[in-house]
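User: I'm curious what two different proteins look like when written out as structure tokens. Can you demonstrate?

Assistant: Sure. I'll show them one after the other, since each token string lines up with its own sequence. Here's the first protein:
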Amino acid sequence: MPVNTVVRYALRAMIAVADGQVAGPLRAQDIAAGERISAKYLERILGRLVQAGLVVALRGPGGGYVLARSAAEITLQQIVGAAGGGLVSVPCLGPDCEKSCELAAACRARPVWSELHRLTDGFLTATTLAAICSGRGRKRIAPLRSSAVRKEPLRR
């Protein structure tokens, strides 16, 4: 389930806009320079975010990009969706699975992919831009504890 470049850059741009909003609208050139993203590529991504209603482009002197609503009201799911990312990463979760796969009804792997989809969707929906900007988003992911890793080989 790779996260594509557009999704990664869209999130970085949203974080930059949210962080910079206190000082006023943020110009695309400033976001691009700060995030080390091609300005032309970023403009296309910002266009998607505008179309999705996540940011507003203000024209004229002092113009730039601002959030369309509070960072607490913008979810990671909305950002991923605006960037064109999707959660259906295996064909058997698509709407045509029952028609296209003769194993669909008896497949024991399909519930695994379905649960992964459900958990991922829940995480993306529950994680807000405000939580990401404040660092609270990191607390949702439990770090791997060294005690959970077996250091000695299994004995038979």
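Here's a second, unrelated protein for contrast:
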Amino acid sequence: MLAAFALLVVVAPAFMGPGKRLPLTQTPTDFGLGFESVAFEPPDLPITIRAWWIPAARSKAAVVMVHGGGLDNRSLPYANGLALAADLVAHGYSVLAIDLRNYGESDATPNHRITFGDSEANDVIGAMNHLGARHPGLRFGALGMSMGGETALYAAARDRRLEAVVTDGTFAESGPIAANFASAATGIPKFLLPPLLWSAQHLHAMDLSRGRALDVAGAIAPRPVLLIHNAADPIVPAEDARRLAAAISSSELWITAAPVSVGDLGPFGTHVQCYKLNPEEYVKRVTDFFDRVFGKPRT
């Protein structure tokens, strides 16, 4: 038993990283969308980021859609991301759905490590570089789920071309929610996780506290941010969204009501399920938010 647990301590932290790549089983075509597969380099590393460019007719702006951590990719299957992309396109927003580094079909980094949004922000910046070169004058927003929201916040803090950001289920800092994520991903009870998290940091060189959007929040205002969160999120507490709202003076907060029953949502519960639980209200809130930014001239 002790030997088995020791092996678990060494192996289980792999669940905290990107791990096995989730294959793409759907494309925008499955949702009636025309698209182009594109590739570009981020500004920090000679790696290739792969994405789908889904243009809208008479586009108001391009929304860079950013998936979360764990088993995820540019199709955002757990969050119904391609259905959401179709709704954005129908409202006049082109979408660039990207595979972050170490995920989907994008290249791995030399150390194969995730940084919970910090380095990944360069993939969003690279996306804007790519689209800006192809479509001069194009304006940019971002919509990110969980770690993807953290990535978008870091990108906005570093690049003022990102005029508006929507986050969904995003953490204020990654360290405190590591146990919640690891438990949901592995099925291991949280009371058994401290040695595994220690192993992730000290044996696997993973900085579980690297994602701290709170540290860069002051650089985002006055550009607007819409923070979406479900009240019953078991992975990232809704308090994280409140903390981000307090730190970003130009933000607005929408905490959606907990569902009467979580049904078959699985171990991640209502985490990044706000669109799936209430798609009409979600699309109205998000597109109204973007319209307030992109319906007027750039400032």
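A detail about the second structure: Residues 67 and 148 are 5 Å apart (CA to CA).
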